[in-house]
């Protein structure tokens, strides 16, 4: 009986040892599998990281090329702008110098006519009629040239005084015209393409009765009435 018990205990111990060995072996296999998975994961991560780095390096190279191209364009555009500024400045300078070249050239014919009139008058002091005719022809030439460039004179005598076109130099009493009528023209006014170029200097009419009334009002004011 004791021998049977011993043998049973021995078999039980052997089973326990076998189970422990199996568990140890299983744990070793699991550990080995985990290690393999970690190694594979690390390799995958390193591979992905290398690919990302390569992609970033390629993108950096592309951006560097783009920056170089854009900088070259910037330099060209800056040079073009500077050239444009210089050319425009030169053209504006020429325009200021020669803007009136055509009209001045035509005015030379007026100078020629005046010189001829003076020479004619100097040769024949008694013939003032020819001199006047020469001056009148010259004046017509001047007005013709001015009109070609849009400059025209306007009539003022007999018209109502208009401060937009007339500059009143003095007043003159009259009962033949209504108040503020232009009686005389001291200097003719001109327009250029319907815009005022120079106002006419004029004498404006004033009714005598209005003058007397104003004088009376002024006298009463001074006397404190």
Distance between the termini: 165 Å
Using only C-alpha atoms, the radius of gyration works out to 56 Å
Strand count, sense and barrel status of the largest sheet are:
3 strands, antiparallel
Q: Roughly how much helix do the residues carry, as a percent range?
A: 55-70%
The overall strand count is 6
Indicate the multimeric state.
single chain
Helix and strand content put the structural class at alpha+beta
Count of all domains: 3
Could you list the spans in which at least 5 consecutive residues all have pLDDT below 50? Answer: none
Strand order of the largest sheet: 1-4-5
What does the secondary structure layout of this molecule look like, with pairings?
Layout: H1 2-98, H2 101-123, H3 128-148, E1 151-154, E2 166-173, E3 182-187, E4 189-192, E5 195-198, E6 200-206, H4 208-223
Parallel strand pairs: 2-6
Antiparallel strand pairs: 1-4, 3-6, 4-5
Helix pairs in contact: 2-3
Structural description of this entry:
The protein has 225 residues and is of the alpha+beta class. The protein folds into 3 domains: 1-97; 100-149; 151-225, Roll (Nucleotide Exchange Factor Grpe, Chain A, domain 2). 70% of the residues lie in helices and 15% in strands. The protein has 4 helices and 6 strands; from the N terminus they run αααββββββα. The strands form 2 sheets. The chain has a 3-stranded antiparallel β-sheet. It has a 3-stranded mixed β-sheet with strand order 2-6-3. Strand 4 and strand 5 (195-198) form a beta hairpin. The longest helix has 97 residues, at 2-98. It starts with a helix and ends with a helix.
């Amino acid at each position: 009986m004791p021998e049977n018990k011993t043998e049973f205990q021995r078999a039980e111990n052997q089973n326990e040892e076998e189970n422990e060995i199996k568990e140890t072996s299983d744990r070793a296999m699991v550990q080995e599998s985990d290690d393999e998975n970690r190694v594979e994961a690390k390799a995958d991560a390193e591979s992905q990281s290398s690919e990302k780095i390569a992609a970033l390096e390629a993108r950096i190279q592309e951006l560097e090329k783009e920056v170089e191209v854009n900088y070259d364009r910037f330099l060209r555009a800056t040079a073009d702008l500077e050239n444009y500024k210089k050319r425009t400045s030169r053209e504006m300078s020429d325009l200021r110098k020669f803007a009136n070249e055509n009209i001045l050239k035509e005015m030379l014919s007026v100078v020629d006519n005046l010189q001829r009139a003076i020479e004619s008058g100097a040769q024949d002091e008694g013939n003032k009629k020819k001199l006047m005719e020469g001056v009148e022809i010259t004046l017509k030439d001047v007005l013709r040239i001015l009109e070609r460039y849009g400059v025209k004179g306007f009539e003022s005598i007999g018209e109502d005084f208009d401060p937009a076109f007339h500059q009143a130099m003095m007043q003159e009493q009259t009962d033949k015209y209504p108040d503020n009528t232009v009686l005389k023209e001291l200097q003719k006014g001109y327009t250029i393409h319907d815009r005022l170029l120079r106002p006419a200097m004029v004498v404006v009419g004033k009714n005598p009765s209005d003058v007397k009334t104003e004088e009376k009002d002024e006298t009463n004011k001074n006397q404190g009435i």
